[in-house]
Amino acid sequence: MNVRFYIDVDTGLPHFEQHGVTEAEVLRVLDTPTENRPGSGDSRILIGRASGGRFIRVVASFDEDGEGVFVITAFEVVGKPLRALRRRMKRPGQS
């Protein structure tokens, strides 16, 4: 899959790096998301566990042909959103 990243114009780095997320963590979530929900517009919200154990939320837009993805941003899930995610994961039929 062709993965592209939104580059911050001020830093020249992928935007998610401002949130303390690495490219490896983003790629892992894209590969094995715990959740994959619709976002605003054509975007998708993917949440998954990074190799370090923390949960990462990735906001991305997939190409229509399914061959590529444009990662807009990513950040660690903490606080109330993390507690809600853990509750959803405990429901029957959830991964």
Q: Low-confidence spans: pLDDT under 50, at least 5 residues? A: none
- Under the CATH scheme, which architecture would be assigned? 2-Layer Sandwich
Determine the number of helices (DSSP H or I, runs of at least 4 residues): 2
- In terms of structural class, how would the helical and strand content be classed? alpha+beta
Sum up the overall morphology in one term: globular
If you average the pLDDT, what whole number results? 93
The count of strands amounts to 5
The helix content is 10-25%
Biggest beta sheet summary: 5 strands, mixed
Strand order of the largest sheet: 1-5-4-3-2
What name is given to the CATH topology?
YaeB-like fold
Question: Hey, roughly how much beta strand do the residues contain?
Answer: 25-35%
Describe the structure.
The protein has one domain (2-90): YaeB-like fold (2-Layer Sandwich), CATH 3.30.2310. A hairpin with a 5-residue loop joins strand 4 (55-62) and strand 5 (68-76). It has helices at residues 23-31, 79-90, and strands at residues 2-5, 35-38, 43-49, 55-62, 68-76. The chain contains two helices and five strands; from the N terminus they run βαββββα. The model has no long low-confidence stretch (mean pLDDT 93). With 95 residues, it is an alpha+beta fold. Strands 1-5-4-3-2 form a five-stranded mixed beta sheet. It starts with a strand and ends in a 5-residue tail after the last helix.
